[in-house]
Please model this.
Amino acid sequence: MTAEHRIRSFVAAEQRAITSTLADLIAIPTVNPPGLAYEACADFFSRLLGQWGMDHRVLKVPDGAHARFSIVGSYGPDEPGLHFHGHYDVVSAQSPDQFRPEVRDGRLYGRGAADMKSGIVAMLFALRALQACGIEMKRSLTLTLVPDEETGGRLGVRHLGAEGLLPRPALGVLMPEPSSGVIWHACRGALTLRVVVKGKPAHGALAHHGVNAFEGMVGVMNSLLDLKQRVVARQTALPVTPAEARCSVMLLGGASASGADFDVVAGTAWFSIERRINPEETLAQVRDELECVFEEHRTKGFGIEVEVFQQGDASVSPVDAPLGRALADAVGSVTGAPARFELCPGVLETRFFSRHGVPGYGYGPGLLELSHGPEKHVALDALFDCTSVYAITAANVLG
Model:
């Protein structure tokens, strides 16, 4: 029996265990922000890997009331090979019921089912398949499971990278983002800012003594809206779904506030900027465009301070790299449909590997359009197929 047949037989036999493991993981409410139940989730992963005899360690980063925990593991020889990477934090739920997983009509419902706890479980059972099926490996398969992806990864993947703890696999990294059936070989860059406009507070009856930061913010925003018209006219040449997502992204005022009270001249006002950068743009170009706007309004007497929450260039991995070809072959073999490579309309943590020349690919069982919504679910058939895809890909590139 070939390695692929052994793997697919193992996954078929483990469907109930895969489903129950995902249900247990969804029931851990790893909501970020603020970072709830992270330790419980790390313990869950550690117990599972320990039961399978997988070499791993749990790394703790203190952070006030909500410490951060990352899991770093490896399987097989010491020679660097393939890396599995995932994040276990989820966005806030619309209802506590979303942490009570439920199977209906061949789907498992719950917060995090699509993004990306189903993909993590698929990767873990792919590891188990390699072990249980006795797949001979010439290179290692390493693993990182991290928090905080939903808020930029500062104490997750970024911390591991800064501490030199992020593996640099020779063949590349797979990440189980909810890719809706396609392979994401590229992702946008990101620049997330909080812009504070400073004026001078004064009593409303003596408004002439003050400098209205809210009005200053409106002026800055009008200039940014002019810039936005130029930004959204830029389109990537890479395929992306939906086609409307080809445009570069500039989201203004996703969060904002100003002033202290209705009868006081606003002394400060602030708003957010979320720039998602197409591969044809550069982070330096985007920063310069925004700084020109800020400097223009500083000359008008307003203090403007900028806080950077995340920043990074877009990344593109070759579709014909050995890992890209192996993943596409496995997808075609398991699903019966040819694999498609596309640009992720958002950002991926594969970019932290790509900056070191490591190819990165996102492929997972979830649907992107369901990721943060109230009806978040994953099709169980897609979950099982994805488990086989990961294990077959690993067996082909490592064996």
